[in-house]
Each structure stands twice: as C-alpha cells, then as structure tokens.
C-alpha cells in the first residue's frame, strides 16, 4: 500500500495530485498513471508469475492483463515463455 508523508493511505485525489505535480517538476508530458501499471505488467510477465498472479497484484482482470501483454510483449518472447512453461521448466503453482 502506498502511504503519504503523514503515514496514511493515499486517497485517489491525493495520489493523482502528487503524481501530476511530480510530472510537472520533471517536465514529463503525455504519461498517465496507468502507463506505469502497464509497464509493471510487462515487467512482471518476464518473471515466473502467471497472468493470474499479475492480475491479482495489479488489480486488473486477467483479460486486461492478456490484452496488455499482447500489445506490448513481442510474440517471440510470449512463445518462448509458453514453451518453457509447457516443458515443465517454470510450472506455476496450482491454486
């Protein structure tokens, strides 16, 4: 959980205001908060986590995770990952 400087959980408004202020100080334009979450999805996909695991961490549906991965992760990387899983090398734990 993200907390503010007072140690309390961020509100949606507070987080957005701080994010926007940080973007302005860094002179960053064209990025949204969700862009960071999408980047996290693609980086988590390169670990041993399953799409279901990533979905639970990020708080988005598995379908949304799959669409992000289809858009941002190369087909080759996805195929190699799938082959590794099929070979039993990186079998995810059953829930």
Give the tags.
95 residues; mainly alpha; 2 domains; elongated
How would you describe this structure to a colleague?
The structure is a single chain. This protein is mainly α. The chain is built from five helices and no strands. The chain has helices at residues 12-25, 33-45, 51-58, 62-72, 75-86. Helix 2 runs antiparallel to helix 3 and helix 2 packs across helix 4. It is elongated and about 50 Å long.
Topology summary:
Layout: H1 12-25, H2 33-45, H3 51-58, H4 62-72, H5 75-86
Q: List unreliable stretches of 5+ residues.
A: none
Write down how many β-strands occur, each being a DSSP E stretch of 2 or more residues.
0
Radius of gyration: 17 Å
Number of domains: 2
End-to-end C-alpha gap:
24 Å
Oligomer: single chain
- Integer average pLDDT: 83
| Percentage of residues in strands | under 5%
Helix content: 55-70%
| Number of helices in the DSSP assignment | 5
What's the story with the biggest beta sheet?
Answer: none
Question: What is the chain-wise order of helices and strands?
Answer: HHHHH
Broad structural category? mainly alpha
Shape: elongated
Summarize the structure.
The chain has 95 residues and is mostly helical. The chain has five helices and no strands.
């Amino acid at each position: 959980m993200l907390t503010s400087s007072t140690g309390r959980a961020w509100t949606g408004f507070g987080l957005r205001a701080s994010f926007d202020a940080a973007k302005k100080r860094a002179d960053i334009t064209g990025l949204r908060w969700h862009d960071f979450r999408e980047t996290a999805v693609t980086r988590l996909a390169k670990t041993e986590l399953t799409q279901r695991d990533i979905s639970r961490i990020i708080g988005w549906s598995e379908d949304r995770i799959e669409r992000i991965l289809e858009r941002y992760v190369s087909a080759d990387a996805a195929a190699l990952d799938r082959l590794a899983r099929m070979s039993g090398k990186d079998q995810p734990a059953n829930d």
